[in-house]
Design brief:
The chain is globular, with a radius of gyration of 11 Å. The two termini are 19 Å apart. The chain has 2 helices and 4 strands. Strand 3 (29-35) and strand 4 (42-48) form a beta hairpin. A 4-stranded antiparallel sheet has the order 1-2-3-4, covered by helices on one side. With 72 residues, the protein is α+β, with helices and mostly antiparallel strands. The model has no long low-confidence stretch (mean pLDDT 93).
Amino acid sequence: MVVAEVARYLRERHPSLEIDGIRATFPDGWGLIRASNTGPNLTLRFEAKSQAGLEAISEEVLGILRQHVEVP
């Protein structure tokens, strides 16, 4: 499962909470990925204190996600 692979990567590198997906804490914010309960979709959320932090978090999470699925 894609979420499980991304979760494995994130939990090895960041403090994480794994309830219905994974929410990883980064120095400047957090990133979340979870599978939809109603369809073949993934939900991703990112939040940071700065634009640079937001970009770093999203790039890291999307980078590992791209290893498992095609991301537009």
